[in-house]
Amino acid sequence: MTRFAPPTLYQCPACAGYFKRSGFRSLYFDDEIPDWSDGRNGNWWARKSGNVGRCPSCSGIVWIDDAEKLMLAPQEPRQIGPIARVWHLLTGDRSGRLREEREWKVLPAVIQQAEYFDGLVHAHDFIEALTSFSSDAQDRETYLRRRIWWASSDHLRGQRGVSLIALPSVAEDVAHANMQRLLELFEHDPKEQVARGELLRQVGRFDEAVAVLRAVKPDGYSEVKAVKIERLARAGIAELQNLKATPVRRSTREGATDLPKFGGVAW
Ligand SMILES: [Zn+2]
Fold it and tell me: Are 25 and 5 in contact (CB under 8 A)?
């Protein structure tokens, strides 16, 4: 099960408002979650813990690394009934319930009422966020462009016959330019060679995709994924794929039928 750690209180760098954010205690992936070839998984929890989101006070885009981390977010104590209150008084408040209540009551209302930070989830928010940092912040650009890339394929992600969204959420020219820029960002990054191979496959540069994927350094995971994507590239298949799905869908692209040995392979 995915569990969240107790929320932390942050202060917005733009408006000085307070907000709460939960980190993860543990992550759980069940077998039902598709293994998408572009690396997106079923991260429903991203909204609560994303690295970039909107401040609930000023609605501005905030990178969590830019916000001041203050302390564990105070939690409102449970109400104390009249009989329990007498008992706590008589026993010297051994359980600390009266102390917790006093500490909560002296907190400023802006801290008591702090809302949760909402991680960005929509393509238009990620596109807007591209303008929210200096041009030398390449890790932030990569983070945003990878999510725009994922969002541009969300209408293709069916699970049990139902897509996440019905229509593309990113205009075709924006999606294309974004992929070209990601290819530049990933070119010399050894950690991103599987993603680079997948991008090359999706834009139809199959020979380059195969060359990049064959050169992926084994780490117990990346090379397995690289082999699966390489097979798709060799078969001339450019569409997004669930790498867990079997059999592999045959592409209607010209030339794909020349490589029938890749169709119907159970991965
Ligand atoms: Zn703010």
Answer: yes
